[in-house]
């Protein structure tokens, strides 16, 4: 056994259960005698329900009940918008009245003895509407806009200096508009919910990135004590942000189970998933970038407008990141929200950075062309020690090291900078690059660690493994701190009855949870050490000098006591430690918020005292067919500096997945909207395109070493959302290099280049 | 999905008998039918499973009479057949480039040519207006998202594109369809199987109710070895064609003796581009001739906003396919 588990690459401890099917995903949970729910969703985006004809549906054998606003009004209380101190992803109360706010809103839930009967009855339910012309988004007459600073308490548009004056005065400048589309997460696992009442206690099985939040949110909606609600989500089949906040379905399934007096299972359809959960908001962005003749940035103006729903001010606001990315003395940014008749958008993997860094990193490339400067050199000349808005020093900034290592591995020096200069047969070849950044978030977290006399450790925390490898890295942290082999550590996650941990969002889990687990393990070590110095081989030593290593408590000179003996000295049985970790610099109330299921992450690049982020440089080769303009990506390479890597294997697959996601974000992913009707059209995973294997033949990940204990005691930076930032810009930049045409609107499809 | 009666037929007469009564559908690979039943778009009262007929109707035979493909042959089997790949590459490629490996292993040729449009307004019953699904209800696509809709063969009642690939290959090679029906067997040119939407877009084929496709024939055509199927799509695999072209060339030195061209992804039915073929006959195949042929093929194109780019893409696809075929050693 290696002395240090952190930094090793064990295979996932839950891998075997997953590939053998032993892992029970929430909808796999067997409950006694379930009733099945099937949703009916609205066929219009705006208006009212005028009639619901139930007779034919109720006549289907096996149908038990149909929930509509007619028998549900007043049942579900308001849980509040998650970003305004509440819990809900969208504040429309489910089945509250006859009003339709958006396409695909839940208008009825059919309950039956079988899934088939529920589905058939749902098909036979007739809902009539009085439709009003809706606003779909940009260009819709009835859409309204408001500045984010007005819509969202506490929102500040970062700015410094006088960007407009500096832009006017600068010798070299570019100005351009960029557009990014609506995107849906489409995790393979659908948005299922299973609910049952056990006595007065409600148990919910639902794939979730935030079991504590769902517990408190549902308790609020149903007027229950949070202790009466338990949310379990041990395995999650993909989430990407879509399973982070409370959606309407959960309370409905819970109420159905109470009314029927039996468990209820809901497995919505793929297309319903487009409207009953969240999505990435589309944006329109305007960027102005100016430099002196040496390429030193003088001004950045970045303005973004983002679609949200009528009731909720969801914001993307990636200007928080772009304003701080490079050393620029004059910055002005502004975010505006556009309210349309759409469901409320939400977090999707690197929510602010994916759209906004697309614009910034495209603009930087455009500026490099205007300056006739290598785009990497331009970034080098504007690298920084401090972020420019508040002057917060970077805790570490590996950006240029990533560019150097990546460029070398990619062969960047062989690139002829002239557009359309590289070609193979009918295929135009382009090479492009772009930066990635992901702020290092961290949250207050709690955990319980139990060490039993037989040398087994159990870690319990209501954190989540959404497919990222959290089970494994948390076990590694505990194994390291307790000096145990990995197989002696059990990890329990995804259960709101466990000590609370933050939402699995903002790539904070590894940092937050490993640090609290380390703290709990430290308590256990301290207790063992205090007892060991009383008597036995370690008598009289300084307890602080003793370490748990390889199954023993060991002093620096090698004197040791085996764990069983040390255990029996310290306790009669197991030793249990409960730790609370409040990251440095976070306000005390973060801990209280954690216990009440409110999302409160700290760290990042805007709060201080340090600016903390992971960085990377991404390189792509594209091929564009000279006649038919398909864009293909034969290779992509990312070099990343992301602090201490707990498990290079799982880190690599996060980053690799991110790069592939980035290919999709550049070339494939777009939820198409019928503008007249404000409805999603390609709401299935055949026509909502993501890359297939053939679209990502060669993906290389380089992990650079980085030590940064400024971010947290273990030196961990999150990286789950690092890989897929900037890839879209790198591809657009490569397409420009291949074709001489600048694609400023995503996705870049055939018709963009014909 | 709604309740239906399930029958399993192990012989052609039994299949015809079972299908004879009521609103029935044959079930082959099920990759179109079951999808559309789950979406409530197709609502057969009776489903007649014809997969047991595969032992008799699943063959791939080649000889001096040309090629005969059983209706229940799987797409993957035909795509992988060495002889089809050598002598009729356009057929093998059209199948190999379609759908995914899993689907090709399930799906049959008979079902393939009868696959329904991917028009989202057709596939989503929450849209009230769709003439194909509900005759006379209107067409939601006309003022909707039309990126994948047709530009050739449209009518004011329906602009849905025919999505399949294999049909173009059959059409280009003058294939035929063998049928069995209550009135006995018959054989028709493949070109007569699909209808234009006109004012009856719900009638997609000329099949009589209950008629069963038993197989396809392709006449002997030695120069079919110089044939290609070019599929232009939004990702490298597992996507329908944005535009495609099936091309076979009979060359006499640099000169075209005869060209066969069918277009996919751009038309309401499998589309034979005879005007383009006529332009090329007797010509030296160079850039100018190829462009003229492409112009001719799309002369009558009508677009609807999102698909404004399609005639241009269709032309380029055809030109590229022509040169690709030209480069092949026959
Ligand atoms: C995700 C996805 C991607 C796809 N991509 C492509 C693609 O890229 N290119 C492409 O060409 N296709 C594609 N397809 C379509 C696929 O090729 C067809 O669904 C398949 O070929 C249909 O064959 P089947 O045997 O499954 O037909 P079924 O679903 O069993 O039947 C289809 C229809 O034909 C009828 N039928 C079947 N056999 C007979 C017969 N012998 N006589 C009379 N009627 C019959 C049935 O009643 C039914 O109406 C895709 C499908 C899916 C689901
Ligand atoms: S194009 Fe055809 S299939 Fe599509 S909505 Fe119109 S009528 Fe229906």
UniProtKB/TrEMBL annotation, chain A:
Keyword list, A-Z: Molybdenum, Oxidoreductase
Coiled-coil regions, chain positions: none
Gene Ontology terms for molecular function: iron ion binding; oxidoreductase activity
Gene3D superfamilies: Aldehyde oxidase/xanthine dehydrogenase, a/b hammerhead (3.90.1170.50), Aldehyde oxidase/xanthine dehydrogenase, molybdopterin binding domain (3.30.365.10)
SUPFAM superfamilies, sorted: CO dehydrogenase molybdoprotein N-domain-like, Molybdenum cofactor-binding domain
Pfam families: Ald_Xan_dh_C, MoCoBD_1, MoCoBD_2
Domain named Aldehyde oxidase/xanthine dehydrogenase a/b hammerhead: residues: 20-133
InterPro entries associated with the record: Ald_Oxase/Xan_DH_a/b, Ald_Oxase/Xan_DH_a/b_sf, Ald_Oxase/xanthine_DH-like, AldOxase/xan_DH_MoCoBD1, AldOxase/xan_DH_MoCoBD2, AldOxase/xan_DH_Mopterin-bd_sf
Protein name: Xanthine dehydrogenase family protein molybdopterin-binding subunit
Automatic annotation (TrEMBL), chain B:
Keyword rRNA-binding: no
Residues covered by the FAD-binding PCMH-type domain: 1-223
Superkingdom field: Bacteria
The entry's keywords: FAD, Flavoprotein
Gene3D superfamilies for this protein: 3.30.465.10, CO dehydrogenase flavoprotein, C-terminal domain, Uridine Diphospho-n-acetylenolpyruvylglucosamine Reductase, domain 2
GO molecular function, one term: FAD binding
InterPro entries linked to this entry: CO_DH_flav_C, CO_DH_flav_C_dom_sf, Diverse_Substr_Oxidored, FAD-bd_PCMH, FAD-bd_PCMH-like_sf, FAD-bd_PCMH_sub1, FAD-bd_PCMH_sub2, Mopterin_DH_FAD-bd
Coiled-coil regions listed in the entry: none
Keyword Ribosomal protein applies: no
The protein's name: Xanthine dehydrogenase family protein subunit M
């Amino acid at each position: 056994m290696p002395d240090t588990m952190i930094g090793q690459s064990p295979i996932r401890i839950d891998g075997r259960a997953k590939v053998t099917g032993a892992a029970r995903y929430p909808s796999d949970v067997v409950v006694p005698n379930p009733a099945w729910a099937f949703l009916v969703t609205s066929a219009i985006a705006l208006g009212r329900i005028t009639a619901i004809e139930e007779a034919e549906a109720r006549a289907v054998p096996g149908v038990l009940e149909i929930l509509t606003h007619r028998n549900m009004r007043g049942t579900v209380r308001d849980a509040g918008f998650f970003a305004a101190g509440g819990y809900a992803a969208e504040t429309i109360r489910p089945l509250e009245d006859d009003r339709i706010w958006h396409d695909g809103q839940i208008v009825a839930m059919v309950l039956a003895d079988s899934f088939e009967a529920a589905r058939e009855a749902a098909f036979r339910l007739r809902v009539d509407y009085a439709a009003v012309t809706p606003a779909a988004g940009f260009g819709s007459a009835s859409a309204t806009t408001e500045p984010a600073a007005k819509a969202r308490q506490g929102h500040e548009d970062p700015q410094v200096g006088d960007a407009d004056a500096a832009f006017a005065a600068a010798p070299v400048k570019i100005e351009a508009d960029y557009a990014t589309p609506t995107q849906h997460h489409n995790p393979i696992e659908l948005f299922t919910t299973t609910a049952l009442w056990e006595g007065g206690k409600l148990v919910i099985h639902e794939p979730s990135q935030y079991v504590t939040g769902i517990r408190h949110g549902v308790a609020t909606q149903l007027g229950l004590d949070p202790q009466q609600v338990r949310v379990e989500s041990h395995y999650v089949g993909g989430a990407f942000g879509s399973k982070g906040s409370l959606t309407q379905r959960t309370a409905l399934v819970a109420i159905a189970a109470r009314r029927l007096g039996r468990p209820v299972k809901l497995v919505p359809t793929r297309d319903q998933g487009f409207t009953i959960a969240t999505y990435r908001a589309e944006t329109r962005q305007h960027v102005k970038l100016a430099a002196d003749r040496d390429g030193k940035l003088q001004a950045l103006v970045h303005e973004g407008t983002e679609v949200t729903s009528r009731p909720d001010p969801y914001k993307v606001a990636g200007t928080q990141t772009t304003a701080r990315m490079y050393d620029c003395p004059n910055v002005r940014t502004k975010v505006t929200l556009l309210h349309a008749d759409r469901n409320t958008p939400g977090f999707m993997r690197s929510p602010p950075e994916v759209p906004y860094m697309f614009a910034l990193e495209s603009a930087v490339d455009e500026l490099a062309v205007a300056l006739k400067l290598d785009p990497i050199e331009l970034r080098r000349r504007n690298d920084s020690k401090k972020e420019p808005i508040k002057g917060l020093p970077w805790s570490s900034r590996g950006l240029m090291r990533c560019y150097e290592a990546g460029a070398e591995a990619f062969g960047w020096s062989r690139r002829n900078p002239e557009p359309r200069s590289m070609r193979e047969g009918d295929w135009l070849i382009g090479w492009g690059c772009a930066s990635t950044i992901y702020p290092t978030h961290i949250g207050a977290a709690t955990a319980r660690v139990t060490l039993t006399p037989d040398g087994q450790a159990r870690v319990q925390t209501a954190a989540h493994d959404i497919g990222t490898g959290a089970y494994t890295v948390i076990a590694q942290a505990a194994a390291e701190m307790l000096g145990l082999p990995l197989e002696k550590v059990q990890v329990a996650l995804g259960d709101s009855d466990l000590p609370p941990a933050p939402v699995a969002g903002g790539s904070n889990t590894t940092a937050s949870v490993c640090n609290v687990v380390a703290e709990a393990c430290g308590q256990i070590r301290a207790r063992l050490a205090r007892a060991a110095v009383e008597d036995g081989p370690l008598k009289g030593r300084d307890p602080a000098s003793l370490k748990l290593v390889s199954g023993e408590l060991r002093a620096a000179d090698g004197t040791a006591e085996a764990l069983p003996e040390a255990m029996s000295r310290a306790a009669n049985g197991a030793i249990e430690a409960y730790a609370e970790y409040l990251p440095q610099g976070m306000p005390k109330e973060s801990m209280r918020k954690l216990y009440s299921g409110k999302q409160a992450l700290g760290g990042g690049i805007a709060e201080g005292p340090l600016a903390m982020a992971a960085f990377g440089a991404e390189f792509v080769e594209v091929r564009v067919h000279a006649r038919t303009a398909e864009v293909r990506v034969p290779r992509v390479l990312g070099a990343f500096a992301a602090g201490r890597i707990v498990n290079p294997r799982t880190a690599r697959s996060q980053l690799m997945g991110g790069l592939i996601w980035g290919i999709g974000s550049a070339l494939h992913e777009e939820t198409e909207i019928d503008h007249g009707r404000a409805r999603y059209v390609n709401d299935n995973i055949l026509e909502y395109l993501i890359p297939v294997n053939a679209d990502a033949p060669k993906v290389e990940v380089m992990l650079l070493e980085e030590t940064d204990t400024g971010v947290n005691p273990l030196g961990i930076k999150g990286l789950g959302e690092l890989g897929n930032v900037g890839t879209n810009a790198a591809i657009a930049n490569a397409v420009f290099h291949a074709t001489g045409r600048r694609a400023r609107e995503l996705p870049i499809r055939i018709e963009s280049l014909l | 999905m709604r309740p239906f009666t399930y029958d399993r037929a192990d012989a052609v007469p039994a299949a015809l008998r079972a299908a004879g009564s009521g609103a029935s559908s044959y079930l082959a690979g099920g990759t179109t039918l079951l999808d559309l039943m789950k979406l409530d778009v197709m609502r057969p009262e009776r489903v007649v499973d014809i997969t047991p007929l595969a032992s008799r109707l699943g063959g791939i035979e080649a000889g001096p009479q040309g090629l005969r493909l059983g209706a229940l042959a799987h797409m993957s089997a035909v795509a992988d057949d060495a002889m089809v790949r050598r002598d009729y590459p356009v057929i093998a490629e059209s199948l190999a480039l379609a759908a995914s490996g899993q689907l090709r292993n399930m799906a049959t040729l008979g079902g393939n040519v009868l696959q329904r449009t991917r028009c989202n307004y057709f596939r989503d019953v929450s849209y009230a207006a769709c003439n194909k699904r509900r005759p006379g209800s209107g067409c939601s696509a006309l003022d909707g998202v039309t990126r994948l809709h047709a530009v050739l063969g449209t009518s004011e009642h329906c602009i849905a594109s025919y999505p399949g690939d294999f049909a173009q290959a059959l059409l280009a090679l003058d294939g035929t369809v063998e049928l069995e029906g209550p009135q006995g067997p018959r054989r028709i040119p493949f070109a007569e199987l699909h209808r234009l939407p006109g004012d009856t877009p719900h009638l997609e084929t000329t099949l009589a109710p209950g008629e069963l496709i038993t197989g396809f024939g392709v006449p002997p055509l030695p120069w079919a070895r110089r044939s290609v199927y070019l599929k232009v799509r939004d990702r490298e695999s597992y996507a329908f064609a944005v535009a495609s072209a099936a091309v076979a060339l009979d060359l006499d030195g640099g000169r075209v003796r005869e060209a066969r061209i069918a277009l996919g992804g751009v038309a309401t039915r499998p589309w034979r581009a005879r005007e383009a073929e006529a332009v090329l006959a007797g010509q030296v195949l160079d850039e100018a001739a190829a462009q003229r042929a492409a112009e001719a093929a799309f002369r009558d194109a009508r677009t609807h906003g999102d698909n404004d780019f399609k005639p241009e893409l269709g032309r380029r696809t055809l030109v590229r396919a022509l040169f690709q075929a030209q480069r092949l050693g026959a």
